[in-house]
Structure formats: structure tokens, C-alpha cells
Amino acid sequence: MKKTLLASLGLTLMLSTTAGIAVAEESNPTSNKQLNTTSVLEYNEQEPNDTNEQANYYFIGDNVMGSLGEEKQGKWENSDIFKFDTFEYSNNVHFTVQGSKYPDSYLELTLYDSNGKFIKRSGIGEYFLDSAVEKRKEYYLGVTAIGFYHDRKPFYYKISSSF
Q: What pLDDT does 31 receive?
């Protein structure tokens, strides 16, 4: 209940901030707007999404909010998986994750190919991941809470990305 309430409050705050920025942007005639062919949605992850088979679909450019740290059958959930397609884009993709920070705990991003083969991982305490991707390929992005088992506190996070 607390997890849902906090996630809803966070979403409301982010959406109101985003809406305020959008209104200010539209009212500024000298604004330097660029055509953005990627999605710009913001939404919450859907459980379960702890394996490649259960991965939530993700579009580059979206913002997705989630949480880690729920107890499931005596084990603490510490990762979420997202699947994305590069469509016609072949370039570097930049992922960022914003989230809870605790002593001796951090969030980690990991990129896998369509077969689940490891490609690249963010550095310790680095809340970003840059990697080259090929067009018309499918990839998986994992977000993992490292070290949270000891504290048993939830991690709330937001993933964003761009080409």
C-alpha cells in the first residue's frame, strides 16, 4: 500500500512539473524546439518484470518509474528487466537512472542483447550507461539494486534514455 501510494505521489509530482514546463515552453515564441521521433511518455513498470520473459516493453525516450525491494516468496526482488527495439536507429544510446540512494547500496544498469548475452554494465555508483546499438535489433535493459538486502528498504527509480 505504501509503495503504491508513494509511487502515485511521485508520478503526480513529476507529471505536474512536466506539464508546467510544457506550458512554459509553448508560451515562449523563441523556444528552440526540435523534432523528436522517439516517444516521450512517462509510466510505471508493471510487475512481474524480473526476467527477460517477463520484461516490460520500453521505448527509447520514455521515462519509466519503478521500485525494487519487495519480498516475494521469501526472497527480496532486486532487479527489473525492460525490453526495447532500436527500430531504424543505429547509434549510441544513453540511459540514466535516478533513484533512492542509501549507504553501501546503489542502482546498476546492465545492457543485454536479444539472446540475453551481457553487453555492458554501468560502473559502481554511476547512474548512467552509454552503449552502441544496431538498428532493427532487440535489447534488454536491467536495473538492479546492489547491496539493498541488508537495509531492506525499497529503491524507487526512474529510467530515461535518448539516442
A: 34
